[in-house]
Design goal:
The protein is α+β, with helices and mostly antiparallel strands. The protein folds into 2 domains: 209 residues, 2-Layer Sandwich (Ribosomal Protein S5, domain 2); 169 residues, GHMP kinase, C-terminal domain (Alpha-Beta Plaits, 2-Layer Sandwich). The chain is built from 10 helices and 12 strands. The strands form 2 sheets. Strands 1, 2, 3, 4, 5, 6, 7 and 12 form an 8-stranded mixed sheet that branches. It has a 4-stranded antiparallel sheet with strand order 9-10-8-11. α2 packs across α3, α2 crosses α4 and α9 packs antiparallel against α10. The longest helix is centred in the C-terminal third of the chain and has 25 residues. It is globular. The two termini are 17 Å apart. The mean pLDDT is 95.
């Protein structure tokens, strides 16, 4: 069952409409939503043109927008506001369309600004001044793709308002360009694709080279199972150097092997030709992770959650030992929740872990994780279940 049209979302939409009117003096033309995502398996394979298996979740970014007319004061000014962390009057970040240049917009407003910038690079497209307000319940820095949810909600809104008729693949590619060139984060194309293309109760099997997708049923209900998210509350950022370093390692490995990307490598034995041991370990993760994604798709189609759980554990070991993007908190969460299968999810260096858990085991597993964190002196994690929801659209 999808929650995109739930009463809770409807209440948030109504509240956002009222806050927009209070801040800007009139109501928005519309409100659009885009979900965050959980990546079931397939980490850091997207920018290596490999395979990923994410799904959209029932936490989303809402974006309210009103275009300015040429008669409006400041008709070429972009106004951005957010309800996040705001108690009373909402602060507004303003910038003119002509001032939109990479790295010019600070904080969260860089993400919708980046989308506007990317759209204005297209022939025949000119996005002028507008008012925008965002309300998001995707935890920030949790590895659930809060920034991409905001970018996708923005591009879906502008595609609708300006009648651009972009395909979902085009929107994914444009938001990737926005993230890479404007924000400065060298991310792949998985997160925005999951937010745009997912179907309720399904994972999205995406080939990041061809951009072909398949909806793969998630047989959780028939196994009385859930996906449990363990947010370590250790925030991560794709703009930080660790992510870029891993991407550079992969490019180095591909160059050493004489291939365009590590997608073209199918066996660990081929990696012996890479002289640098760090680049070789990074490549090993990518090659084995691509295999795990294919195996997970087959296991889901066979309704074998036990096999999926084992693959999740193998994926975490690979990210911990070969890609070296885990953390003490993520390792503790995975170890405490490993019974049905668990791994860190997202870019790493903090964020969240996920676990496949029988419904009756939610509280015992959650308690085991909390106790492990308390014993180690870590901040108490946020633990919650998610469902596979619909992709982005009008709210």
């Amino acid at each position: 069952m999808s929650r995109s049209g739930s009463g809770e979302t409807a209440a948030r939409v109504n509240a956002l409409r009222e806050k927009f009117a209070k801040a800007y003096g009139h109501r928005p033309e519309g409100i659009w939503r885009a979900p965050g995502r959980v990546n079931l398996i397939g980490e850091h394979t997207d920018y290596n043109l490999g395979y990923v298996l994410p799904f959209a979740i029932d936490k989303n970014a809402l974006v309210a927008v009103r275009r300015k007319s040429q008669l409006d004061p400041g008709s070429q000014v972009l106004d951005f506001a957010s309800t996040y962390g705001a108690g009373g009057e909402l602060p507004i970040t303003s910038i003119t369309v002509d001032e939109l240049v990479p790295r010019a917009v600070p904080g969260w407003a860089a993400y919708p600004a980046a989308v506007l910038w990317a759209l204005n690079q297209l022939d025949g497209v000119r996005i002028g001044g507008l008012e925008l307000m965002v309300d998001s319940d995707v935890p920030v820095g949790s590895g659930l793709s809060s920034s991409h949810a905001l970018e996708v909600a923005t591009i879906v809104a502008l595609d609708d308002l300006y009648g651009l008729q972009l395909t979902k693949v085009q929107m994914a590619q444009l938001t990737q360009r926005a993230e890479n060139e404007f924000v400065g984060a060298p991310t792949g194309i998985m997160d925005q694709s999951a937010s745009l293309m997912s179907q309720a109760q399904h994972a999205l099997f995406l080939d990041c080279r061809s951009m072909e997708t398949q909806a793969v049923p998630l047989p959780l209900a028939q196994h009385n199972a859930v996906v449990l998210v363990i947010d370590t509350r250790v925030e991560h950022s794709h703009v930080d150097g660790g992510y870029a370093a891993r991407r550079a390692n992969c490019e180095q490995a591909a160059a050493a092997l004489g291939v365009e990307s590590l997608r073209e490598v199918h066996s660990i034995a081929e990696l012996e030709a890479i002289a640098d041991p760090v680049a070789r370990r990074r490549a090993k993760h990518i090659v084995t992770e691509n295999r795990r994604v294919l195996d997970a798709v087959a296991a889901l189609r066979a309704s074998d959650l036990g096999a999926v759980g084992k693959l999740l554990c193998q994926s975490h070991e690979s990210m911990r030992d070969d890609y070296e993007i885990s953390s003490e908190e993520l390792d503790a969460a995975v170890e405490a929740a490993m019974a049905g299968g668990a791994r860190m999810t997202g870019g790493g260096f903090g964020g969240s872990a996920i676990a496949l858990v029988k419904r009756e085991r939610i509280e015992p597993v959650s308690q085991a994780v909390r106790e492990a964190f308390d014993h180690a002196g870590y901040v108490e994690p946020a633990i919650f279940t998610v469902i596979a929801d619909e992709g982005a659209g009008r709210a």
